[in-house]
Amino acid sequence: MPEPVEAEPVPVLPEPADRKPVPVLTKTTKTS
Q: Measured between alpha carbons, how far is 13 from 28 in angstroms, rounded to an integer?
């Protein structure tokens, strides 16, 4: 089932990136 797994990381990246820069994105990724 590679379909759901591929769709998971896709929405997670644009979320923080749309709100703040790259440095903040790294912190949000660790918190998630």
A: 10
Q: What percentage of the chain reaches a pLDDT higher than 70?
A: 0
Encoding tokens for residue 16?
């923080």
Compute the 3-state secondary structure of the chain and give helix, strand, coil in percent, each to the nearest 5.
80, 0, 20
What Rg do the C-alpha atoms of the chain give, in angstroms? 11
d(CA 30, CA 32): 5
Q: What is the pTM of this model?
A: 0.13
